[in-house]
Amino acid sequence: MKIFKNCIIYSLDPSNNIYDSVLVDQGKIVKLNLSINEINSLDCETIDLDGYTLFPGFTDSHTHSFEGGLYSMGANLSDCRTIDEVLQKISQSQVIGGYKFAYSLDENSLKEHRFPSRDELDKVCPNNPLLLRRVDGHSCVINSKAIEIINFKKKLNDNFNGFLNKELNDLAAHTFHNTLTDEAIISAYTAANKIAITSGLTTVHTMIGDAQYSFNHYPLIKNSLNNFTIDFELYPQFFDVKKAVEHGASRIGGCILADGSFGSYTAALSQPYKNTDNIGSLYQSDQFWDDFVLEAHKNNLQVGVHCIGDRAIDQIARSYAKAQQKAPKDLRHQIIHNELMSDDTLKLMKENNISAVMQPMFDKLWGGKNGFYKQVLGEERALATNRFKTISDSGILLTGSSDWYITTLNILEQLDAAVNIHNPEQRLSVYEALKIYTNNSAKLAHNEANKGSIEVNKIADFTILKSDPIKRNTFKNNQIVGVIKSGELIFV
User: Per residue in 170-222, pLDDT tens?
Assistant: First the structure.
């Protein structure tokens, strides 16, 4: 048994109780608000938390932790401002399993406003296949060595400059990922586990699979879960319902794609992108999604689908609604990203128990008066993106996530972004922001009986903050002091 005392404990339970101490035994909460006599008389370890603030362990409900862990060992290009800086970082990056990886490049932030060319990449990486991924993950650039390992099925043009998007982007990325050794894969998840802890997380939802018909290393990680400190919630990210059921999955999908991204102009819109006649792409037919969703639904699998544009969100919401109306079940199917949504679709989601898994950091990075959303969508639609407050107030189950490696895994940055959405009408309160990473994330995973709030008999997962964000009404200038996972204190 352990006692954690001298702290402010926000339970986030239905009564919003606040405590000052907690007794933990065998990984679960036994008692809250112990008296001085109880603390002194119990024969157990007592840990003084020096006035810090405890919350239920935070959950990130949508990540690509394999890629995040893997790429963390490669070249992070997010702060590069010239092609030369990009090339220098790549030249200095380490080789992982025979390959090189670079990520988070936004070509619009570079002085040259372009991607590095294949020839430029060959000069700094002549001996190893290189995968360089755009910040949204929907485009990439490769070098000549990478061409040798990818089966393109048809000859590339002689003037191919290394840039790939849509299906070819996926083909390149999955070729790199699928040909790594088991040792390299475990190393990637070990790195992700460490980053999650230092980011203040106790549970992380992660996608595994090629978003088509291969679930890659899903069995390997499922059988290795006890080797990690945090809890990984696994998503077999593919379309094979039968295989998901055979492997005991409770969900299917994740970033199986209904459309693309704003950055690649492939997100499916009802009205064209600004100053174009392009409305993006729906990647599958209505019938395809209706059949897939209904099959998964009948097999009690929660479905998650990547949807960015309003046309894609509406398409998937309608498939969920059809399945729900044919066979009502509490599966809480997920619309992931949900960046540009109509009022009609919002109503449909509410009526059919559809969840919204969203990323506050998207608005922080791309929203605002001069942000990328306005550049590609125009001012009116830009203001209608990332409707956190509207969705939350409607009663739709809203959860917070990073889409890591796309944005930072750091929970304080995500929480701060949620309360500072560029459109003031869509900002969450500090308390509402905390709920989407605790209560709501537990509900998304159908695990509210064990996680999401600090109550007797629930798992003793806590995140420790240096100062009290509720009292201060801000997440700024705070610090993750540590996490407690199943009653074990892990300082970071």
Answer: 899 989 988 998 998 999 999 999 999 999 999 999 999 888 888 889 999 99
CA atoms of 407 and 414, how far apart (whole Å): 9
Closest by Cα among 461, 463, 455, 457 to 486: 461
What sign results for the dihedral spanned by CA atoms 115, 116, 119, 125? Answer: negative
Bridge partners (DSSP) listed for residue 489: 484
Q: What is the mean pLDDT of residues 129-139?
A: 91
Check: CB of residue 135 under 8 Å from CB of residue 113. no
pTM, 2 dp: 0.90
Q: What is the pLDDT of residues 429-470, one digit of tens each?
A: 999 999 999 999 999 999 999 999 999 999 999 999 999 999
